[in-house]
Amino acid sequence: MTWLVPLPVILPLAGAGLALTMSRHPRAQRVISVVVLTLVLVAAVSLLGLADRGPLVVDVGGWAAPVGISLVSDRLAALMLSVSAAVTLCVLLYSLAQGLADGDEEAPVAIYHPTYLVLVAGVANTFLSGDLFNLYVGFEMLLLASFVLITLGGTAARIRSGSIYVVVAIASSLVFVVAIALTYSATGTLNLAHLAQRLPEIDPGIALVLQLLLLIAFSVKAAVFPMSAWLPDSYPTAPAPVTAVFAGLLTKVGIYAILRTQTLLFAEGRADELLMTAALITMLVGILGAVVQNDVKRLLSFTLVSHVGYMIFGISLSSQAGLAAAIFYVIHHITVQTSLFLVVGLIERRGGTTSLIRLGGLARVAPLLAILFFVPAMSLAGIPPFSGFLGKLGLLQAGVADGSLLAIVLVIGGVAVSLLTLYVIIKAWNQAFVQDAPDDLPDTTLPRGMVGPTAALVALGLTLTFLAGPLYAYADRAASDLLAQSPYVDSVFSRGDRGVGESPEAAEGTPP
Q1: Terminus-to-terminus CA distance in the chain, angstroms?
Q2: Which of 69, 252, 336, 461 could serve as 60's disulfide partner, Cβ 3.0–4.6 Å?
Q3: What pTM does this model have?
Q4: Range list of H helices, 103-131
């Protein structure tokens, strides 16, 4: 069943090319996009079950590692693929309904569909990549697609925010390229499994420099402080579905890269204290920024930054409990954050604005909208029994079990940030849904095609709560694999004529 592994990359790329040829046939483009993303979801869920029995590896072009590029679907990659496929499909359906309701003025169809499919392919390529350079290729696919999507409509605000995003992304890409060049110079390989074997053999000082360069590059993508200032100014100006998929997925691509490289390449944990410090400051700066916001989009953008800190918290503990909680929290946050930004798009359509000062009375005039906001908002705030509470509880327990001073400080900080998150969510709820409605509140009917995908994504968030036991157990097994390293490395080097776990040097008859 290894033929399933490249499908989440191949299908969107093929669909993008086909959609581009259908630029004069909007209906055909819509059908192509929906069919492609549905097939990607089916492939991803299939890989989720198969990867639980062991990683699946495909050598691109038939070139075995470390010469060729490997695509690896282990538990972590399959889990990330599945949730990202579900989210991108829901966002696509939402955007189609919005485009039809607006006459496609907000999302030019000829550009939107191919670009969106390239974005999906870039995300999948990043999750599946078993090669550092191919990981870079996935990031660049995301950069190109993101710039087009974030500037859709061509307004001055969108061009400005898109320019900021691109400048920051290019800067991080340059750091990444330098890290790749130095890594190859020091080790002679870019294959992740091969690097896991060779990096411990090089000078520890050089290895630390490589680790820090990769952390900087990935931290910009993930919006980790102090490299997070770009996010609140970039995301809120984009169309609602674009903002939703950016907020839900793109920062998690950076988190995934940090999680993969820190456990597979730099298992010594030499940067753990640095990551703990960055996690704490990211949580605090993000939530303090959210407290002073009066626009719900910017408020959620700052909470996004803050909750990235929770994920870095789990990674920095370098324990199975910490990694499992971080993985669970990433899955929860992708779903919940995307849901909230889709709901905000509905709020803007019903209330005419996203300014909390000018909103009010939505609970009375749009009770379904109030429910759709309330459920993921309470999960984001960590109210039991929602998945956000379970994820935070797992992180706090892992921090207490670690017992170090920084870990305990992070536990205290995590509790404080959770309470502040609840405060800003209640503030947004009161101002948008409870306070008296303004006299000029538009009398707008929300399109069912936009409400349906939003409700489906909210339901998916609730499903994470009901299935938290099996999901957390899966995340725990994924964390165990990350720490063991051998399932990943052995699966890559068991290809071809090599034995399981045998290094390529040994296979060639040379000393390892």
Answers
A1: 31
A2: 69
A3: 0.92
A4: 109-128
